[in-house]
Amino acid sequence: MCPISRRAYKENIQYLSAADVRRLHDDLMSFRLATYQYKAVPSERHLGFIIEDIEPSAAVDPGRDMVDLYGYTSMAVAALQTQAREIEALRHEVETMRRELKKRPAR
Fold first, then answer.
1. Given CB 3.0 to 4.6 Å as the disulfide criterion, which of 6, 16, 32, 79 pairs with 20?
2. What are the tens digits of pLDDT across the range 17-55?
3. Residues 6 or more apart from 13 whose CB is under 8 A from it?
4. pTM to 2 decimals?
């Protein structure tokens, strides 16, 4: 079942700070990816992470001993947002450096 995301169904909503988003990015970047086979279906190879390697994490549903796909996806969004901000800052820095170089007299 897909989580309900409408405001009407939620309470105590608290948006993450930039530091919180950065922490989620850093946590996700530390996930060690692995390939594996389930014992019950050894003919199929899968890609993912091992819960024991990352818990506690927003990507884990500890009550059901499985990945929390909504939490995992939200962590990926946090990582994308963090990287987008970093890319924008780098673009700005490169543009500033280009302008400064154009101002320098030719040697």
1. 16
2. 999 999 999 999 999 999 999 999 999 999 999 999 999
3. 7
4. 0.82
Query: Residue 57 in contact with residue 27, Cβ under 8 Å?
Result: yes
- Which DSSP string corresponds to the chain? -PPP--GGG--S--PPPHHHHHHHHHHHHTPPPEEEEETTEEEEEEEE--HHHH-S-TTEETTTTEE-HHHHHHHHHHHHHHHHHHHHHHHHHHHHHHHHHHHSPP-
Distance (Å, whole) CA 28 – CA 22: 10
C-beta of residue 62 within 8 angstroms of C-beta of residue 56: yes
The letter for the amino acid at 90 is: L
Tell me the angle at which helices 18-29 and 69-103 cross, rounded to the nearest 10 degrees. Answer: 110
- Two tokens, residue 72: 């995992």
